[in-house]
Design goal:
Blueprint lengths: L19 E6 L5 H15 L2 H4 L6 E5 L15 H13 L4 E5 L8 H8 L1 H8 L3 E3 L5 E5 L7 E5 H5 L1 E11 L3 E3 L1 H4 L8 H8 L3 H15 L3 E11 L7 E11 L2 H11 L8 H8 L8 E5 L24 H11 L1 E5 L9 H5 L5 E4 L2 E4 L9 H5 L5 E5 L3 H18 L1
Parallel strand pairs: 1-11, 2-3, 2-7, 3-4, 7-9
Antiparallel strand pairs: 1-10, 5-6, 7-8, 9-10, 12-15, 13-14
Length: 404
């Protein structure tokens, strides 16, 4: 198979057959609600020895994309971090919590504090680890874009348990289990991946190429409150009241995409995962506790770029000029920290005096600048007739919400 002899940290990704994905409902982030859900999902999957095999430290790896507060629904809620770490400690595991967020280059402590991860780790009595400070090791990758990747050394030594966040995403349509794997790559190497594969289709292909090298042992997805619209940071919070779990990140994302009402071709990572046999097109869904009458949520606000996925590449250049959303700097919010300059893989961000600017001619819309800007001074701005398109879309969305 395509992925034989590659290094992985979790399941056998050479065959997606017989894969199960587990789904439960959760209505709040109170420990009394989250703990029984995590316990039930783990039991349904075969027990905590499946989630975190004994003999190695258990590394809880959330999505702490940037220094945003939990209420923004941009990052994994700290309740998941704290409750999961506590459960694992009670079962005799050595537990650590870590990630490589976009703001780590400027200073990871601010990310820990703002996201609530620091308080959650303190309450659970477990340490936080910076992937940038842990050193790194090389893993081989079978890809036309790269042949190896550096990953945090601590992730190589531990059983990694992903705790992803359910979000729609402007570039990849979906942020879920697969994209959360990128966080074990330390430093600005993640931005370099965008430079190597700037087109959304190419970047999605690269993400799938990385699955065998980066896949965690097990993944939970925080979908109690997720993000819809033009994520990963600029969307709107929405209550989905769901937690999804499994040991195959590709299959988990197949189920997440279906829940959000996306066809496989709408989420290129899902489409490619199915085509390569990393996940079945119809994974077995195991309902844990109270189930759903229907799997699909109604009226999920897709990212505005979704329709561009279906255009031939020659048309994308024209469509991009007319309809695309690009990052733009809000000058009176910019503090001149240069984080966007450091994170931009193509040199589109620069500092003029004390204010950053983005060169639209160079911008590849990877959104690294938006993710890393601690001052939230970089916003997604629709261009030209795109403003009319998004205005009509948002008006129709509000009307549907009022009717429902």
């Amino acid at each position: 198979m395509y992925y034989n002899n590659l290094i992985g940290n979790g399941s056998d990704y050479t065959d997606g057959a017989g894969v199960r994905v587990f789904v439960a409902r959760a209505y709040s982030y109170e420990e009394a609600d989250i703990r029984p859900v995590l316990e039930a999902l783990a039991e349904a999957a075969g027990g905590w020895d499946v989630v975190a095999p004994p003999g190695r430290p258990a590394l809880v790896k959330p999505n702490l994309m940037a220094a945003r507060e939990p209420a923004r629904a941009v990052t994994t809620h700290p309740a998941f971090i704290g409750v999961l770490a506590t459960i694992l400690r009670e079962r005799g595991r050595e537990v650590i919590v870590g990630d490589s967020p976009a703001g780590a280059v400027r200073g990871i402590k601010r990310v820990w504090e703002n996201t609530g991860a620091a308080a959650a780790a303190r309450a659970a009595g477990v340490p936080l680890v910076s992937f940038e400070a842990s050193g790194s090791v090389t893993r081989r990758v079978n890809s036309r874009f790269i042949d190896e990747i550096r990953v945090a050394r601590v992730c190589d030594e531990a059983a990694v348990i992903g705790v992803a966040k359910l979000k729609t995403h402007f570039l990849t349509t979906l942020t879920g289990a697969v994209k959360n794997c990128l966080g074990i790559i330390p430093g600005l190497a993640k931005a370099e991946l965008h430079r190597r594969a700037p087109h959304p289709e190419d970047f999605s292909e690269l993400l799938v190429d990385l699955i065998p090298a980066l896949a965690p042992t097990f993944t939970f997805v925080d979908g109690v409150v997720g993000l819809e619209g033009d994520g990963p940071a600029s969307g709107d919070a929405r209550e989905f009241n769901v937690v999804v779990a499994g040991d195959n990140v590709a299959a988990v994302d197949v189920v997440l995409a279906r829940m959000l009402g996306f066809a496989p071709e709408d989420v290129l990572t899902v489409k490619l995962s199915i085509e390569r046999g990393l996940a079945p097109a119809d994974p077995e869904v195991v309902w844990v506790g109270e189930g759903y009458a229907e799997l699909v949520f109604g009226d999920v606000a897709a990212p505005g770029s979704l329709w561009l996925r279906h255009l031939p590449r020659p048309l994308l250049r024209f469509a991009g000029r007319q309809f695309v959303i690009r990052p733009a700097v809000v000058a009176d919010r910019c503090d001149g920290c240069e984080q966007c300059v450091a994170s931009c893989p193509v040199g589109a961000a620069r500092l003029s005096g004390d204010v950053a600017s983005i060169d639209p001619a160079k911008c590849i819309q990877c959104l690294c600048c938006c993710e890393t800007c601690a001052a939230e001074a970089i916003r997604l701005k629709p261009l030209r007739v795109a403003r009319l398109y998004y205005g009509i879309r948002d008006l129709n969305r509000r009307r549907r919400r009022r009717r429902s």
